[in-house]
Amino acid sequence: DFPTAVSSGVSDADALFCDSWRLSVETANAGPWRTVPARCGASVRAYMEGERYASDSAVAAAESLAFAAQAFASGVGGAMPAWVFDVDETLLSNAPYYAVSGWGATQTSAAPYLSAQNSQCPSPAIRSHGEAISSFLATGLQEFNETSFDAWVDIAKAPALPSSLKLYNELQGLGFHIILLTGRSELQRNATEENLLFAGYHSWEKLILRQISDIGKTAVQYKSERRAAMEAEGFKILGNSGDQWSDLIGLPMATRSFKLPNPMYFIS
């Protein structure tokens, strides 16, 4: 249980609680969790739509680049220095999708993404990408809906996280081999490649997606196995960027791992 905040008003108490909850999530102290607490929906929305999310992401990218430049210059990566990126909420932002349910989880139907003509989404940054979002729907905080998310993936219009795109290009300029390791299914390869190109990413070394043999594996197991395969091929994984701890932990690990913020969902 979290301590009760002492405050002059309920909104102040919620803000304090939700800041602490988000820290607990980012440090993995919260452990597995299924939905954003009901009292934190507005706080998560403010964080994701405001300057803090962009700033936190930019700081993570800057720290990543500082390490990458030093490591590359030292030659510790050998002939095949590699950097691994997750895709969702790391390279691509699914903010237009999560906005319609108050940033807590998902719609139970994909229809708003497939049929809308006029967006009423409150964030200009989201509206500017022209995603098919009919309205900001305060439908309550729900658990992840795979069917509607897959429909969103098929649209292939998720924008880039700006700081991640900048980091990606700078790492390529340094000479890193860029490997994309995502929990998306192999069936989503075409849509994922199309979306990455749409968002400005190009020239990756590999795009690794879940195969039929990976069904039932946790993200930690699946991604650890894929990193082991990379090392067997001769890659030296100097860096790994992801929005989930399950993108980063498990042996073998990168020399340095960089956690991006994500208070919207948890993947084990």
TrEMBL record:
UniProt cross-references to Gene3D superfamilies, sorted A to Z: HAD superfamily/HAD-like
Source species, domain of life: Eukaryota
InterPro entries found in the cross-reference section: Acid_phosphat_B-like, APS1/VSP, HAD-like_sf, HAD_sf
Coiled-coil features, chain-numbered ranges: none
Signal peptide, first to last residue: none
Keyword Lipid biosynthesis found: no
Family listed: Belongs to the APS1/VSP family.
Protein name, entry field: Acid phosphatase
